Structures are given as structure tokens and as C-alpha cells.
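Protein: Lipoprotein
Species: Caballeronia terrestris
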Amino acid sequence: MRIAAAIAFGIFTMSALSANADESSGSQWRFTETTLFELIQNGYSIVAVTRDAARAGSSSAEDTFFLQKTNSVYKCFENHAVDASAKRPSAPVECYELTKPSVTTK
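Structure follows.
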């Protein structure tokens, strides 16, 4: 259980540093078409969830779900309208897979 907590903390720390990752060179997170639902159905467990509150002037908040299965890790972003009556995400959930960082040469 301590290992899972340490992994979740490490993932949370990586997320705080990388925010919404993209496919830019050197990124450790690669966009995937796999959905949050599919990940859960394929045996991934949610090991951590974070929430970024709405910023001033913004009408949405973002939840980040971290999922793990053995040595494979994904993070998925879900945006919600701040309006309490909103029952659905304001945008599709986007998922990213943790990959070996790409090396760029100059």
C-alpha cells in the first residue's frame, strides 16, 4: 500500500509540473484516443484525482484522473462548468499515456 501511495504522489507531482501535456518534444505524456471508460474496463485503477478550481474569469474547473495498471500510467482531464446545475463535462475527456521522454537533437 505504501508503494501505491508513493506512486500516486509521484504522479501528482509530475502532473503539477506538466499541466496539460502535449506532444511537444521532450514530453513524457502522449495523447491517446483511449477513453477513461476503456481504461477502467481494461483493469486500470484510479490512484489519484486532483481538481483545479476555476480561475478568475473562467467558467470551468478541471479534474485530473491518474490511472495505473502495473507499469502503465495514464492521466485523463475532464473539464466541468462551474455552474452547479451542469451535469455533464463541458468538453470531451482527454487522456494521455506516460511514455519514455523523446530525445531531440540540435
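Remarks: The first helix runs from residue 2 to 18.
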